[in-house]
Amino acid sequence: MEQLNAIVQGVHAHNIPEETYFRKLLFQVMLNTGNEVTATLLLDIFKKSFTSEAIIFDEKWNRIEEPLPFQDTTMMNTNEAFEFTINTIQFLIADLRRLGNKVLNDPNRGFGVSSSVGTRWYNFDITAIVDGWNGFYATGSDISTKDTTNTSEYTWCDIADILLIGKGYE
């Protein structure tokens, strides 16, 4: 998914606040709920999230438990994978709010911070998250090596995977 790197690095010049980007990403995912998940769709969602409408924060998101990375999502059907991704994005939005502006504006935040619910963050903006995800999978053992022409290789969980692994990779 070198194309994803190019998208977030090239478009990130907009410098959108982290929470806003995630709320826009959530809007784009929800907008595409009925579409078949392909590499093109995933790339399009990440790209359009820079300029799209943002979903309004819902206080209910504060009650979502942290989704753990490395879950076996292979047995999830499309609806379960979609819900997992939605919950992941909603949790991350709520967690960014819990961190607050003081932490998000701290130049040393890249050394790692924990939110009030114990979630560990090393990467915050989408460019750093994608870089972290790429760094973790530098061995080429997962989505980064998927065949972009084989649509059955992609699921909604790929977005959650990028976000969960990318935010926590040192």
Structure description:
The protein is an all-alpha fold. The chain has one domain. Helices cover 49% and strands 2% of the residues. It contains six helices and two strands. It has helices at 2-11, 18-31, 39-48, 78-104, 126-136, 157-168; strands at residues 113-114, 120-121. The chain has a two-stranded antiparallel sheet with strand order 1-2. A hairpin with a 5-residue loop joins strand 1 (113-114) and strand 2 (120-121). Helix 1 (2-11) runs antiparallel to helix 5 (126-136). It starts with a helix and ends with a helix.
Order of strands side by side in the largest beta sheet?
Answer: 1-2
Decide which structural class fits the backbone: mainly alpha
In what range is the share of β-strand residues? under 5%
- How many angstroms separate the termini? 20 Å
Helix content: 40-55%
Mean pLDDT: 83
Total count of domains: 1
Using DSSP, what is the number of strands?
A: 2
Summed up:
With 170 residues, the protein is mainly alpha-helical.
Tags for this model:
single chain; mainly alpha; 6 helices; globular
